[in-house]
Amino acid sequence: MRRADGAAEDTARRFLQAVADGDGQAACRALAPRTAEEIDAPCAESILGESLAAPSPRATTEVYGQRALVTFDGDAVFLAVFPDGWRVVAAGCTPRGEQPYDCAVQGG
Amino acid sequence: MKRIRDNSLGLFFGLLFLIVLVGQAFAGHADFNQQQMAAGMEPVTLGRYLTSASFAADVSENWQSEYLQFFLYILLTVWLVQRGSPESKKPGEQGRDSDEKQKVGAYATAESPSWAHRRGFRPALLSNSLGLVMGLIFVASWLTQSVAGAAAFNEEQLRGLQAPVTWAEYLTEPDFWNRTLQNWQSELLAVASMVILSIYLRQRGSPESKPVGSPHDATGVEG
After folding, report:
1. With contacts defined as CB-CB under 8 Å, which chain A residues touch B51?
2. What DSSP assignment string belongs to B52-82?
3. What CA–CA distance (Å, rounded) separates B212 from B220?
4. What is the domain partition of chain B in residue ranges?
């Protein structure tokens, strides 16, 4: 039922690393369109101001259909499949029990 | 032509099943893509939808309830009766019947299946094969529903930025029991309706009905 998907983890890791490296343009390219819309323009500058931790070396990935959840040591990243591959739907997410995750960045 | 006519009931339902399954595939695909678009995502291909957990769960949840219905009906009509129903044995005739009536062992005829002549597990297996196969398909379908349902449920969970659950956790989720019970109740209602209504109502020419002129309390008489 569960399968690790390297591609989803790669995208999440690349996104968080781009933010940590100060490469806002690369980070914004990894966002899903609706999520990018929610970031104040210009995205490449605003995304660097979000509280997103650098990716930890270890992560667990859960993929179900068109969606994936990559959990790093600090927080989690939600992703979805688009024609060009995985895109970040929400990031900097922490669990809140039965409630949806609380995310620093997320689409509308 | 005669061969087709002699098997028209099975052929008709088999063909209709395939047509309706194709219809479900297209409708389900359109519905799935509506949800994708609403969530700001791209539509998926029909092929991807047909291999999705969502389609598998939708198909298997209906299959399991249909096979459960027939499994229960086949088995319970051995022991339970309904006075006046053409679907029932006559009151007093409950049970597995004698070998003579069932034409097994020494009572098997030249036309009986070969396993009806044998001794040991073969006649026992043949004697219970219909219920057994229906029961096995029910269990397999329900298991498929639980596995595919869990994956489809988790896709929804992730869409709503919620944590996925394990298969064991999914078995305690309202989603699993809602999918299961909504199908069971409709099947049980259909069976109860058939048993009761066939006491008083008739369908001329149908073996599922009593002959039109049969009294309401005539039991186990098929037209």
Report:
1. none
2. SHHHHHHHHHHHHHHHHHHHHHHHHHHH---
3. 14
4. 1-51, 53-223
Q: A6: pLDDT confidence band, cut at 50, 70 and 90?
A: confident
Helix (H, G, I), strand (E, B) or coil at A67: strand
Contact B44 A66 (CB under 8 A): yes
Residues of B in contact with A105 (CB under 8 A): none
CB-based contact B167 A1, cutoff 8 Å:
yes
Contacts of A44 (CB under 8 A, 6+ apart): A24, A25, A27, A28
Contacts of A100 in chain B (CB under 8 A): 160-162
Residue A3 has pLDDT above 70, yes or no: no
Q: Quote the number of domains for chain A.
A: 1
List pLDDT tens digits, range B136-165.
999 999 999 999 999 999 999 999 999 999
Considering only CB atoms, which chain B residues are within 8 Å of A108? 40
**B54 contacts B28 by C-beta, under 8 angstroms:** yes
Cα(A22)–Cα(A67) distance, integer angstroms: 27
**From residue A43, how far is each of A12, A89, B40 by CA, in Å?**
17, 15, 18
Burial class (CB in 10 A: 0-12, 13-18, 19+), A100: middle
Residue A1 inside a domain? The answer is no
DSSP letter for each residue of B117-160 = H--THHHHHHHTHHHHHHHHHHHHHHHHHHHHHHHHHHHHHHHT
Instruction: Judge whether A100 lies within some domain.
Output: yes
Q: Is B167 on the interface with A (CB under 8 A)?
A: yes
- pLDDT band of residue A97 (cuts 50, 70, 90) is confident
Establish whether this prediction's ipTM goes over 0.95: no
| Residue found by looking up tokens 């394990």 in the block | B166
Q: Does the pLDDT of residue A2 top 90, yes or no?
A: no
Confidence of residue A108 (pLDDT cuts 50, 70, 90): low
Asked if the C-beta of B150 comes within 8 angstroms of chain A's C-beta atoms, the answer is yes
**The pair of three-digit structure tokens given for residue B187, joined into one six-digit string:** 């099947």
Nearest CA in chain A to B151: A64
